Structure formats: C-alpha cells, structure tokens
Amino acid sequence: MMNHQSDHIKLKTLVIVAHPALHTSSRANQKLAQTAARNATTVHDLYAAYSGTTLNAAHEQQLLLEHDRIILQFPIWWYSCPSLLKQWLDDVLTYGWAYGEGGNKLHGKEWGLAVTAGGSNETYSPQGYNLYSLEQLLRPFEVTASIIGVRFLPIFIVFNAMQLNEQELDIKAEKYAAYLTSIH
C-alpha cells in the first residue's frame, strides 16, 4: 500500500489546448494555458502548431507516449470540441496504436478534460436551456478513454467563461493548478 505524504503527484502532464483564437478571444482558456505552463506541464497548442498545415500524427503520438497524464483543454462549441481537436482524435488515436489489436500504447495513462463554457452550470441541466449536464454531453470522451485504456479523470469545468472578472479567473486558475497536480 502506498503512503501518500501529500495530495500532489509528479506525473509528466501534457495539456493539449484546442482553441482557434486562444490569444484573441478567450481570456479563460488563455489563463488556464498559462497556469498549466507555470505548473511544470507541457502545453501543446494545436492551432498554433497546425495553422494551415497537416496534423503530424506520429509527432502527436510521441508526445502522448512521453507523458503520464493527458489533459484536453478546449471551449465547448456546439456541445463538443473545436474541429481540429476532433481531427486530432481521429488521426492520432488510431487502430493498432491506441485501440484494437496491438493498440495498447496509452494503457495506464490518465486522460482528462478541462473545458470552458459560456453558459452557467444551471443552463447545463435537465431543467436548463441545454437539457443535459456538461458531463453527459462529454460522454463520448469518456467512452474514448475506455476504448483506449486510459483512466478518465473528473472533468474540470469553467462555467460563465466569458463573464468572469480577473479575480474570478485567478480563482479558477488556482483550482486548475490543483487539478493538474493532484491525485484524482
């Protein structure tokens, strides 16, 4: 049995940021990415890496192999992720590599989501505008985690992302830092 002296661990963490306008339109995602970078985390901005170029699946797979915990950070767009992250999932998590016969390269790793939503927690409920919780809407990511053999972490959610003031963003950033370094 392990004796944990603290609730923080030293896993190699990769945060894959997928926001097409990270530096011009998303204070919340920008703040989260900066927080990740300050916490000894590798931050990989998909839109900066692949603006107008083809996704390099072999490079992306190597990044995954080099890390123990993978966090996908993105804004909720039409109840899912931006298109480049969807393409990343399709091109990188391939049969024979991530799943299926011989597809065990990610087994034992941790997989989490850090998402921002423009709406409130209340709007993401059976009684709210969106009819479902964000956890329910993001179930395809949980199923993907199961298929590729990774442990799915609790989802880190920032609601009302566009309305938060600087102090509220700082509080969310502190919570994100704890999320990135804590045992789940």
TrEMBL record:
Q: Record's Pfam families? A: Flavodoxin_2 (PF02525)
**Looking at the keywords, is Oxidoreductase present?**
yes
Domain of life of the organism in this record? Bacteria
Query: What are the coiled-coil residue ranges?
Result: none
Q: Where is the Flavodoxin-like fold domain?
A: 12-179
- Which residue positions does the secretion signal occupy? none
GO MF terms here are:
electron transfer activity; FMN binding; NAD(P)H dehydrogenase (quinone) activity
* Gene that produces this protein: ydeQ
Which terms are listed as keywords in the entry?
Answer: Oxidoreductase
Protein's recorded name? NAD(P)H oxidoreductase YdeQ
Entries under InterPro entries matching the protein? Flavodoxin_fold (IPR003680), Flavoprotein-like_sf (IPR029039), KefG/KefF (IPR046980)
Question: What species is this protein from?
Answer: Paenibacillus montaniterrae
